[in-house]
Specification:
It is a single chain. The protein is mostly helical. It has helices spanning 3-10, 25-31, 37-65, 70-83, 87-107, 112-120, 128-138, 143-164, 170-183, 202-211. It contains 10 helices and no strands. Helix 5 (87-107) runs parallel beside helix 7 (128-138).
């Protein structure tokens, strides 16, 4: 895969739907001080190590290797649905995934339209990690590149959410991002076949549940 195509998928300007979702960062910012590079970097590392690595990365890899069989992709999608216990994060993941897939359908990415029709028919929820695995496999991105893309785009989306919330300045946020990417670099490997989905971020999960009661929110989740 040419590097320029990988950068295209990693570009924050790509209309994949992530702009409207903080993936828990809004709730975390409301519950704690993220105004320093150290604080935000530790929060990013926490989410990457204990949610992305054991949950999203595994779901992405399963969908990637199943990309030629949409029934298997849908089975993975439903597994993510029942394994996502926090409703705002579960619903946000599905909405973000559908937005990402809709963009690729309009761009004519192979397989995107077929799976989007399944989602619209209620046969699959369309979680982001799953549709990323499907789409990136169909685009010819290698499995190693797909995992690296997921790692980077997850970290940058969380960082940008923190900046847009005013929780931290842009320069400090970049220091935090570099720290988190370096700290979690060992996780950017293909998961073992058959690895279970697992996530353990209780502080974030509780913060998200509490924040859903707030009168004003900037993000959909």
């Amino acid at each position: 895969m040419p590097l320029s195509r990988l950068l295209w998928q990693a570009d924050s300007a790509f209309p994949g739907g992530s702009f409207g979702f903080s993936n828990g960062m809004e709730a975390l910012a409301a519950a704690s001080d993220l105004s320093t590079a150290l604080a935000l970097g530790e929060a990013l590392s926490l989410l990457l190590r204990h949610r992305w690595a054991r949950f999203d990365r595994v779901a992405l890899a399963r969908a990637y290797w199943s990309a030629d069989d949409l029934d298997l992709v849908a089975a993975c999608d439903r597994l993510v649905e029942v394994s996502s216990l926090v409703a705002p994060l579960r619903e946000g993941s599905a909405r973000n995934g559908r937005a990402f897939l809709t963009t690729h359908d309009r761009l004519g990415t192979p397989g995107a339209g077929d799976y989007l029709r399944r989602i619209r028919a209620g046969a699959a929820p369309g979680h982001l990690a799953v549709v990323q695995g499907l789409v990136w496999a169909r685009l010819g991105i290698s499995p190693e590149e797909a995992v690296a893309l997921s790692h980077y785009t997850t970290a940058t989306a969380l960082t940008q959410a923190a900046v847009r919330l005013g929780a931290i300045g842009a320069i400090e946020a970049q220091r935090a991002l570099v720290h988190a990417l370096d700290d979690s670099a060992d996780l950017v490997v293909l998961p073992a076949p058959g690895e279970d989905l697992f996530s353990f971020t209780p502080f974030v999960d509780i913060a998200v549940q509490r924040h859903m009661r707030a009168d004003v929110r900037f993000f959909a989740n």
